[in-house]
Amino acid sequence: MSEAPAAPPAGSADPAPAHGIDLLLKPPRPRAAWRLLPARVGAMCAVELQKLRHDRTELYTRAVQPALWLLIFGQTFTRIRAIPTGGIPYVDYLAPGIIAQSAMFIAIFYGIQIIWERDAGILNKLLVTPTPRSALITGKAFAAGVKSLVQAVVVLLIAALLGVALTWNPLKLLAVAAIVVLGSAFFSCLSMTIAGIVLSRDRLMGFGQAITMPLFFGSNALYPVSVMPGWLQAASRANPLSYEVDALRGLLLGTPHHLASDFAVLLVAAALGVTAASALLGRLAR
Amino acid sequence: MTRDTGRRQADAVACTGLAHAFDDTSAVDGLDLTVRPGEVFGLLGPNGAGKTTAIRCITTLLPVPAGMVRVFGHDAAGDRMAVRRLLGYVPQQLSADAGLTGRENVALFARVFDVPRRERAERVAQALAAVDLADAADRLAATYSGGMVRRLELAQALVSAPRLLILDEPTIGLDPIARTGVWEHIGAVRAATGMTVLVTTHYMDEADQYCDRVALMHRGRIRALGTPAELRERLGARRRAAPGALPTLEDVFRDVAGSGLDDEAGDFRDVRSTRRTARRVG
Ligand SMILES: Nc1ncnc2c1ncn2[C@@H]1O[C@H](COP(=O)(O)OP(=O)(O)OP(=O)(O)O)[C@@H](O)[C@H]1O
Ligand SMILES: [Mg+2]
Question: Can you say where in the cell this protein is located (chain A) (predicted)?
Answer without folding.
Answer: Cell membrane; Membrane
